[in-house]
Every structure is written in C-alpha cells, then in structure tokens.
Amino acid sequence: MVGGTLRSSAEVKVPETRSEEIRVAGSTVILTLRPSGDAAPRLAIPLVHRTREPFADRWALPGGWIAADESPVDTAARTLAETTGLAPSYLEQLYAFGAVDRSPTRVISIVYWALLRQDDVIAQSAAHVAAGRAPENVEWFDVDALPALAFDHADIIEYALWRLRNKVGYSRVAHGFLPSEFTLSDLREAYEAILGRHLDPANFRRQVEAAGNLIPTDRFRTGSHRPARLYRDNTDVELAARGPLSPAETSIR
Amino acid sequence: MVGGTLRSSAEVKVPETRSEEIRVAGSTVILTLRPSGDAAPRLAIPLVHRTREPFADRWALPGGWIAADESPVDTAARTLAETTGLAPSYLEQLYAFGAVDRSPTRVISIVYWALLRQDDVIAQSAAHVAAGRAPENVEWFDVDALPALAFDHADIIEYALWRLRNKVGYSRVAHGFLPSEFTLSDLREAYEAILGRHLDPANFRRQVEAAGNLIPTDRFRTGSHRPARLYRDNTDVELAARGPLSPAETSIR
DNA sequence: TCAAAAGTGTTGCATCTACACCCATGT
DNA sequence: ACATGGGTGTAGATGCAACACTTTTGA
C-alpha cells in the first residue's frame, strides 16, 4: 500500500524538462482462437519478427508510432490491419506502458487488445496462400508457446490474457472469436479455451440462455451425432460495457 | 461492433510522420470522502483553476508534463503531491486519453485515479490554515457539484467515478478513504457514498466479516449510543488485485 | 444398436435480502 | 425510560454446481 503525508507542496521541485523527447507508440495484443485439428481450439497471437536492434531476432507485438493526426485507437486499428489484413471484432485499450527503462530510448506505448473472428483469420490465411504472398515477418503463435519477446512485451501479453480471462466472466467478449452463426458448443469451447478449464455443457447452456444475448435460428449444424442448433448474436448488446467512455474509443468509424 | 475484412495489408499506407509533435501529460482524478456536517460524507475532488488559455478560468485535473526521466505513475504521484501535499492510499492508471481534438495542441494524457484518506486531507487542510497559506488555485468540489471543466476533463472524471463504483463491488478500494482504525459504520458509509445508495447494516457486517480482510481491535468508539468496535485493515491483502502488472505501476517506491 | 453430443430435469449448497429482534450506551 | 445505533438470528429467494437422464443423429 502507499499512504502517508509529504512535505508541503511548496518544497516540491518541478522538473524543467518537457516531454518532447518522449515518443509515443501504439501496439496491440491481437487474439484469435485457432482450431487445432480436432482437439480443443487454442488462443493464438500474431507477432512480428524484429530484424533490427534493439532486440533484433526477437518477436514483438504489432505496432507503430502514433501519427500526429491519429488517435491511439486508430494507430492500433491501422497496425492491426497492416499486420493481419483484418478488422477486429473487438478492440479495447489495455494499458499505457511508460516505465523509463522499458526501451533503450524513451518510448511510451499505448497498448490495445483486440479479438479476431476465427473464420476471418482462416479466410485471410487461405487468401494469402492463394495469392502466394503473406505479410513478411508475421507469424502466429499459441499463447502457451511464445517465442523470445522484445521489450516488455511478454509482460504485456500476460496482462492482456489476464484481462481477457477476467472480462469473459462478466461480458460477452468471447463472442468476438466466433462467426455470425455458431452452436452453443462452439461458444462453450471458446470460453474453455480462454479460461483453460472444462465447463459443464448443461449449466453453460442455461447461463447463456438466461443472459438473453443469443438469438436462436431455425438452422442446425449437422455432421455427427445429434444436430446442434445454430445461434446468432444479439447485436443490440455490446460485447462488453465500456462505461462512459466515448464510443470512438473502442470502435472503428 | 466492429468486424469485417479489409484490403490486403500491402495496400495500406504507412504514415511518414513520427510522434515527436505529440506531448505526453499525466493527470490524476484525486478522490476523497468529505464529512459534510453530520450528514452522510460525500465524494470530493481537488481541481486546479486555470489562469491561462486554453480554457482560462475553467477548472482542470491536477497534472503536468511527463518528464523525460519519469514514469507516468511518478508524474501522477508527483503532481498529486504538488497539489495536495499528500501521498495517496491508492493509485491506479485510469486510461490514456489521446483523441486528436481533445486539446488545441496535440496532447496525450495518461490519467490516473487516486484515493486519499479523509483524515490525511483534514489534517493537511488544518495545517494549511495554521500556516496561513494553502496551495494557490486549488479547490475541492463535491463530485455532484463540479464547476465548468477544461478539455475533456468532465468525461474523464465521469469515467473515474464509474471505475470506482465498479471496483468497489469486487475489491477493497473503499478502505483507501478510511483512517487506520474505523468502525463498520464508517466503512459502510464509505460504500454508501460511493454507490449512492443505502446498504443494510446487518448484511454489510456479515459480508465484510466473511471477506476476512478486517482485523478487529480491542478498542471501541464511544460517544453516543452503544460503542462500536474499531477494526484495522489486514494489510497483507492488497486494496485491489492488479493482475500481473508490475508492482511499480501502482505503488510508490 | 451403440457411441457421443444435444438438450432437460432435479437436487443440494452457498449466497444474498429483507426484516425481526436483542444489546449497550448517552441523554 | 427511551431513543438510537451496534450487533445477531432467521426465513425466503436466487443462483450455481453436480450429475442423472432423455433425445437424436452417424456409423
């Protein structure tokens, strides 16, 4: 804890320096759910391979400098698009990291976290294969098999995962991973991948039905065993309450 | 919601501008509980009267530029001390506000929120009266009677209050307002002031007792009616879980 | 007909809420 | 003695976890 009383404010020295030497970057922890064969899907993150110092040969979060005429959230959305070619289903500010020693030069990073729909990611990587070219130096990693990371990016990813796991408990963020129609098993598997534990299908069903955020369709997914009803999101309800923050802060115009 | 697929990343233009034109400020929403006569205590915030453009004659959050060798949290703690002469019992990053048009010049503000113990505030203002001088241009306002505010500071305060009200439900932040020994009524009044509604004393007692964060003392507050037992905080437990964020991010070295 | 997932029912436990009630003190 | 806040007891409602059970399909 912190606490206590200080000397009178008159004695406190005010630094003369202004902050022009500080550069401001935007980075994003981009998350999706990757189907892994017929096993449970797993959380995955795209990282950028660094070819220059500092931290040459290590992997970093996608990001870039915040342009003079650009809001931080726009930098996040822009660099996310440059890296993946996609627009996120969810985008939220994570934290502003600004410790003096977090980089050899003074950089404050305003970090966002984003969710991508798994069908978008699959379609995009198929398009890259078809076109014969994919973004250079970008690779996807399972969150529990990350490579050596640059700067404080390992801590940042850990914090983003903590926030995701927290938020999934009291919001609908998990829906951000799913296509427009999905079964309750799809949704439950998303929750299980995020939380890392098994959920009872019967109780899960009742909980999401009681929440009233799902619209049942007349369609079913067949294939094996008893067909499962497909549901749509009730798009009247936000994926997560943002409180009184301006809508511009978390969505894209 | 956001969603959708974009053009290939090869077509996205990268701005040439770097971020040297952006200045970075730190501001803090400082909250305390002010006893208002014998009525219920109320949430209050210190604000700084602006004497220069932009927004001359309006009121602003305490803050300043982040120095080149200073972490954002240190800027928050420093400007908080300059404004109030006190150290906070709780300090947490609120949000980085960076919309392009939020200030006539380009400024990104990393905003913190802090709690002050009400006994610290009372002692400090008594000291100011005794010394015959108090910080210039600083005045305390009830949160539901705020003056005309500069920049986007009204929105920022609204967001800070939303965060406080949320956090009080799943953490012990309300303890940050109280002295080291307090009665359960003191604590309940803090919760009531934050949430803006009455809480059942009997149920409140059982809840905080069950949480196990309070240590009963042998002392009682006498004065009127039946004496009330005094409690201390269990300082082994943090006021609020910060997740995997470094301890440096929310406490003062 | 069997395996396995979809979907329903039921029971027990913990927690919350409302409110009745007793306790201890200053006036 | 009595008003008032401190503190305890208790019954009903609600929510959740565990798990038995039925349904529907593909193989």
Structural description of this entry:
Two copies of one chain form a homodimer. Chain A starts with 22 loop residues before the first strand and ends in a 20-residue tail after the last strand. With 253 residues, the first copy, chain A, is an alpha+beta fold. Chain A contains five helices and ten strands; from the N terminus they run ββββαββαβαβααββ. In chain A, strand 1 (23-34) and strand 2 form a beta hairpin. The structure holds a DNA duplex (27 and 27 nucleotides).
Structural class of chain A: alpha+beta
* Biggest sheet descriptor of chain A: 7 strands, mixed
| Order of SSEs of chain A | EEEEHEEHEHEHHEE
Percent strand of chain A equals 25-35%
Please report the two chains with the greatest interface, counting residues with C-beta closer than 8 angstroms to the partner's C-beta: A-B, 78 and 78 residues
This entry's quaternary arrangement is homodimer
- End-to-end C-alpha gap of chain A: 41 Å
Shape of chain A: globular
Low-confidence stretches of chain A: 6-19
**If helices are DSSP runs of H or I spanning 4 or more residues, what is the number of helices of chain A?**
5
Count of DSSP E strands of chain A? 10
Return the average pLDDT of chain A rounded to an integer: 90
C-alpha-based Rg of chain A, rounded: 21 Å
Q: Indicate the percent of residues in helices of chain A.
A: 25-40%
Detail the topology: elements first, then pairings.
The structure is a homodimer of 253-residue chains.
Chain A: E1 23-34, E2 42-49, E3 59-60, E4 63-65, H1 72-84, E5 90-97, E6 107-115, H2 118-131, E7 138-142, H3 153-167, E8 181-183, H4 184-195, H5 201-211, E9 214-221, E10 228-233
Parallel strand pairs in A: 1-6
Antiparallel strand pairs in A: 1-2, 1-4, 2-3, 2-7, 5-6, 8-10, 9-10
Chain A binds a DNA duplex (27 and 27 nucleotides) through helix 5.
